[in-house]
């Protein structure tokens, strides 16, 4: 990875290069209005907290969920990085692939928790084992998606990746943000072409 990789801002939903920045907090980036709209429900509370912090207000990190900004409701500490998050595993319903649970999303879809669960040791951001993945796009997504804590997103240095296209219809795919199937040869098939 080059230093220029770090200067490329990544979408919080799909990890693709992002041209739009949240106008409220300036910390979160999006590749499209659609992804900004998709993220707003969870980001709006965090956005307000980041704005308060930028104005010098001390907002203790253990007083809100670091993924969605909730202050009410049960909170817990993550096992991987000991940060505050919603204690909301019960929101997830089996086989729905819902992203309603902050705790489950962080546990399943971040490099932070993967590094911890695999017991790689050392720093997740320099871990060579964590760089190995099904594709550079997914490695990048696990580093910078909105299931990560902001401090980790800011430290991340995701790899560049070539665009992924459906091998059947040729449509550009955003692997971390949409359903897809893998082909035996290592390609991808979009949900529409796979018949789901």
TrEMBL record:
Domain MYND-type, chain residue ranges per copy: 11-47
Gene3D superfamilies named among the record's database cross-references: 6.10.140.2220
One MF annotation (Gene Ontology) recorded for this entry: zinc ion binding
UniProt cross-references to InterPro entries, sorted A to Z: Znf_MYND
Pfam families given in the database record: zf-MYND (PF01753)
Record keywords, A-Z: Metal-binding, Zinc, Zinc-finger
Native organism taxonomy: Eukaryota, Fungi, Dikarya, Basidiomycota, Agaricomycotina
Name of the protein: MYND-type domain-containing protein
